[in-house]
């Protein structure tokens, strides 16, 4: 006999669901099975059903992935909202934020309320739950600096786990959640600790140059400038489908950097600990791909890190272009360009 909870979950599983509206590349793909879950209780109550689908993945805002074919497994689509204060004192506030909350809306809200730190991360598409997976970062700031804890359900065991910052194993655009088997963890909420006193991060060169002559700079000023820069250079996925930066900026040794600097005196790079981080966008532009279009997919005309869908194109065409760019960069610079976007179905 099925209990009422399990019967409800089974009745909520849909089949052959079109995912085009749920991915920012706007590519066609269908999920063999699709399950929307609207609370943590529903997630826990669905564990047995979920475990019957060894091939599964959790879909958030669909802003950092590329479907290259139909997904022959279970798509889990959590809708977990809510923001509450966990702890607050004169210096800081800790917020527990539901995984499905919109990231940019959170950044906007916290900045307006006088809770600071996230302003450099404005206008990054996606949900709060996706932020620790990628350890999202922009303009000299990474989300790992503000995460106190990540709560998630281990879908293999059914356990609720609480990951400390160290346990998240954050690295450049990486974390334990990204390294783990696809579909193992469903993040339910993220605990963020923000400062009530402005602590501006202006080391990113465009921000440093812009604010160099300003006598007083507020977090709101930084937020506004970041939004301006992103809107100027990066396409809105609603107008020109894309998944943001498609490639990671490669990290090379000092010796490799010096060798490249000899060959390409104008190469753009930044110190990264004991290494150097190369500007992948500059490399792609140098290789002649900026503004390139083929098969209705292309490299954005203003930001070469971004691949875009100019029409009714397939995910496989985007992947073919990405591989073409990577091969060219390898030939020209002898550097491996790593894909930042999760490719689903092209394994």
The major pleated sheet works out as: 5 strands, antiparallel
The 3D shape can be described as: globular
Structural class: alpha+beta
At CATH level 2, the architecture of the largest domain is: 2-Layer Sandwich
Strand order of the largest sheet: 6-7-12-10-11
What's the overall average pLDDT, rounded?
94
Rg, nearest Å: 21 Å
Q: Which fold name is given in CATH as the topology of the largest domain? A: Uridine Diphospho-n-acetylenolpyruvylglucosamine Reductase, domain 3
Q: Would you state the CATH class of the largest domain?
A: Alpha Beta
Q: How many β-strand runs?
A: 20
- Number of domain modules: 3
Percent in helix: 25-40%
- How large a portion of the residues is in β-strands, by DSSP E? 25-35%
Distinct helical segment count: 11
Distance between the termini: 39 Å
Uncertain stretches of 5 or more adjacent residues: none
Enzyme class: oxidoreductase
Cofactor: FAD
Pathway: Cell wall biogenesis; peptidoglycan biosynthesis
Protein name: UDP-N-acetylenolpyruvoylglucosamine reductase
